[in-house]
Amino acid sequence: MFGSAAEVDAAQWNALLGMQAHPTPFLAHAYLAAMEQSGSATPDTGWTPVYFTLRSEESATGHPAPWDAACVLYLKPHSYGEYVFDWAWADAYERHGLPYYPKAVVAVPFTPVPGSRLLARDAHQREMLLRAVVGWARDAGLSSLHMLFADEADLQAASSAGLMLRHTVQFHWQNQHPQTGLPFGDFDAFLASLHQEKRKKIRQERRRVLDAGVHFRILEGTQISAADWDFFYACYERTYLEHGNAPYLTRTFFEHMRLDMSEHWVLFVAEREGRPIASSLIALQPAVDNHPTVAYGRYWGALERVDCLHFEACYYQPLMWCIEKGIARFEGGAQGQHKMARALLPVQTTSAHWLAHPGFADAVERFLEREGQGVAHYLDELRERSPFRHAAPAAEDLARVQG
User: Fold this and answer.
1) CA distance 319 to 28
2) Distance in angstroms (rounded) separating the CA atoms of residues 137 and 134
3) Which domain holds residue 206?
4) β strands within 223-317, DSSP E
5) Using CA atoms, how far apart are residues 174 and 232, in angstroms rounded to an integer?
6) How far apart are CA 300 and CA 319, in angstroms?
7) pLDDT tens-place string over residues 143-162
8) 57 & 200 share domain
9) Tens digits of per-residue pLDDT, 68-112?
10) What is the CATH number of the domain that holds 280?
11) What is the count of structural domains for the chain?
């Protein structure tokens, strides 16, 4: 067990991450280390990391054996930055005179992206790891443990270990024509696959941005200079401040991304009359073995207001780029039913929860059953309102593409 990414063997950690069915750049050692080193996710901000590893004592050669499993959890005195909301659970504890905090979350801070959370060589090691973590949380007297935005392998381990599952909805775009199942040839082919009113709306929104004299510059990886990152951060910070909050991530965090993980980022800069006025940032999980290349919409901000600029910067420009580059999937982040009008389709995401108090665990389990039924009905309603002219890929086809 380790208390900081600096104490964790990066090569061992990343080797395990590469073995998972759904790796993301957000669980890379450099990403987690940057969260700590930049002051973004630290005990001072309510994120105290605890790293767990499982491994044999030594190999046949007498040297330390490779890890069998690993994960990171965070001890938290609040529920900010998680995107799976349990404020009502905390309130119920408080009204009964019981402490809900500190709690533990197995998650990536401020990052509602589904993916592997328990890094393990096989299902048995994954379940062993999770049971060890739950046991640790129980022995530490914590109220609860929450594994957020987990993948299917993690959820199977959670079910075997007796954790409760909670479902939410995100919106993801697939680079897959609804009729042929093949990637879109270009953005016009994508538009042609949509209902006429959706296609017309997108063209109208894009025209407003173009008529405002806005053009885009796209920067990939090392093309994003320190000055470009500075401009992006000014936009990102402005968005948070306009909503009355300080940004979760510091400028230093993004400097770590520039220096250590530049290949995972693409920046879209909106310019008018030669001046940058807005930007959006997406992340990439490059293709490895059978894993498709995936893009993740992450952050955006603007220093000037232009009608429909948000849609252009956060959806249309990234989708055009994804089609051009042959990206398999674009994930739009948490919430946002409006994303369906841009052909991001509803996808169920799932978290797993353990509560130490038997009475509250029973009450939450009943609540989750009712909530789950509501989420299922919501998904059915959304899928009936597909923006595509012809049937979009069935759920099992989407799962196959995502796998």
Assistant:
1) 25
2) 5
3) 184-327
4) 265-272, 275-285, 294-302
5) 27
6) 15
7) 999 999 999 999 999 999 99
8) no
9) 999 999 999 999 999 999 999 999 999 999 999 999 999 999 999
10) 3.40.630.30
11) 2
